[in-house]
């Protein structure tokens, strides 16, 4: 098949996540799901995924995407080693193979499949978030260097990620192409901010210390009584956050949510008065993108790819080390200025934030050339 001829391509996406109809997870899972379902409208798309539960079928078709699942070994939600997937990839043959996530074995196994074009999306931000995960960075180094060397193209989701890959793996600028994550703008149609009797400070993400969610608990005693912290996500830090909120006597001002439907989550973005992500390490942040599309001003850590969002009009930077005085003043400044939601969304839509359909068009161009 001539990939330049505009014909139907046989495409394989390789992911360490489980891939189901309803599962929601981190950025990589959402990325793979969104590009696969859109590519499947024009091409023959298969996803190789891992299988964390015995009740998931070995094979099924989801929204025109053929999904094959393989048993995995993932202690501490790391490695995602699958011998079954490795064997299957050795027999696979596709026009395009696209592997995802540097810090999991499936991306590196994807090099084994026969293909005309090999593309990887690393979702790489340079460090692990614990001693254990930092050890994974070192473990994957030999695999990573070879995988990136063999790849025809490496897709980065931000200029920050591209610079990291270029510096750490000595990749030429022509080999790494920046294609940001997308947003489905249609999902926000019909959503309007509701009056709820309080001002909302919103956090959406994993409950882990590197994300900085703990600072939002610490700052609450400094904020006005009508301000409520809404935390959406799961993670090992939740009992620690609850215990600290109780000790600071602000537990009544914190609302925890998890397993929200997609519509419920987007409504949270729309209802919020300010979105906060005081994280040190992000390759892009789909949560920030969705908050801005919803018209909600943001405060983010002045580090990693989050720097690319800071304009000090709709998205504000928070320096490290984080000061509770500075954080409280910045929250108060954003809330008091009441930045109009239309001003926020118009600033970003079609510029740094693009629709998933545009992302897929750019990926098709990478696949074909």
Describe this entry's structure for a reader.
- With 369 residues, this protein is α/β, with parallel strands linked by helices.
- The protein folds into two domains: 3-180 and 354-368, Glycogen Phosphorylase B (Rossmann fold, 3-Layer(aba) Sandwich), CATH 3.40.50.2000; 186-348, Rossmann fold, CATH 3.40.50.2000.
- 35% of the residues lie in helices and 21% in strands.
- It is built from twelve helices and 16 strands.
- The protein has helices at residues 27-39, 83-91, 105-109, 131-150, 159-169, 213-219, 238-247, 262-271, 286-293, 324-337, 341-348, 356-368; strands at residues 10-14, 44-51, 59-62, 65-71, 93-100, 114-121, 153-156, 176-178, 182-183, 199-204, 227-232, 254-257, 274-277, 298-301, 315-318, 354-355.
- The chain has an eight-stranded mixed beta sheet, sandwiched between helices.
Mean pLDDT: 92
Shape: globular
Helix content: 25-40%
- Taken together, the total number of domains comes to 2
Rg is: 21 Å
- What does the main sheet amount to? 8 strands, mixed
Q: What is the CATH homologous superfamily assignment of the largest domain?
A: Glycogen Phosphorylase B
Number of strands: 16
Helix and strand succession? EHEEEHEHEHEHEEEHEHEHEHEEHHEH
The name CATH uses for the topology of the largest domain is Rossmann fold
**Any low-confidence stretches, pLDDT <50, length ≥5?**
none
Summarize the structure.
The chain has 369 residues and is an alpha/beta fold.
Provide the fold topology:
Layout: E1 10-14, H1 27-39, E2 44-51, E3 59-62, E4 65-71, H2 83-91, E5 93-100, H3 105-109, E6 114-121, H4 131-150, E7 153-156, H5 159-169, E8 176-178, E9 182-183, E10 199-204, H6 213-219, E11 227-232, H7 238-247, E12 254-257, H8 262-271, E13 274-277, H9 286-293, E14 298-301, E15 315-318, H10 324-337, H11 341-348, E16 354-355, H12 356-368
Parallel strand pairs: 1-2, 1-5, 2-4, 5-6, 6-7, 7-8, 9-16, 10-11, 10-13, 11-12, 13-14, 14-15
Antiparallel strand pairs: 3-4
Helix pairs in contact: 1-12
């Amino acid at each position: 098949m001539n990939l330049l001829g505009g014909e139907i391509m046989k495409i394989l996406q390789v992911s360490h996540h489980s891939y189901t109809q309803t599962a929601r997870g981190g950025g990589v899972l959402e990325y793979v799901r969104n590009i696969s379902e859109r590519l499947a409208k024009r091409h023959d798309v298969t996803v190789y995924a891992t299988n964390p539960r015995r009740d998931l079928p070995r094979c099924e078709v989801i929204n025109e995407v053929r999904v094959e699942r393989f048993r995995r070994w993932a202690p501490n939600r790391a490695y995602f080693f699958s011998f079954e997937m490795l064997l299957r990839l050795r027999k696979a043959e596709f026009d395009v193979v696209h592997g995802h996530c540097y810090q999991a074995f499936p991306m590196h196994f994807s090099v084994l499949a026969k293909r005309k074009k090999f593309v990887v999306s690393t979702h790489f931000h340079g460090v692990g978030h614990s001693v254990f995960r930092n050890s994974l960075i070192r473990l994957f180094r030999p695999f990573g260097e070879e995988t990136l060397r063999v790849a025809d193209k490496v897709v980065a989701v931000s200029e920050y990620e591209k610079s990291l890959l270029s510096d750490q793996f000595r990749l030429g600028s022509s080999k790494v192409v920046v294609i940001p994550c997308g947003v489905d703008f249609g999902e926000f149609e019909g959503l309007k901010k509701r009056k709820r009797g309080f001002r909302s400070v919103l956090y959406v993400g994993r409950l882990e210390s590197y994300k900085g969610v703990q600072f939002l608990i610490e700052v609450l005693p400094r904020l006005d009584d009508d301000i409520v912290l809404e935390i959406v996500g799961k993670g090992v830090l939740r009992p620690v956050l609850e215990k600290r909120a109780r000790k600071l006597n602000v537990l009544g001002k914190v609302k925890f949510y998890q397993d929200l439907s997609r519509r419920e989550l987007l409504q949270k973005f729309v209802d919020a008065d300010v979105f906060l992500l005081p994280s040190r390490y992000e390759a892009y942040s789909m949560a920030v993108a969705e908050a801005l599309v919803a018209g909600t001003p943001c405060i983010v850590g002045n580090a990693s790819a989050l720097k690319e969002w800071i304009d000090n009009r709709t998205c504000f930077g928070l320096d490290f080390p984080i000061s509770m005085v500075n954080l409280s003043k910045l929250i108060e400044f954003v809330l008091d200025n009441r930045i109009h939601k239309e001003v926020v969304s118009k600033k970003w839509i079609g510029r740094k934030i693009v629709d998933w359909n545009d992302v897929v068009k750019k990926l098709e161009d990478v696949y074909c050339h």
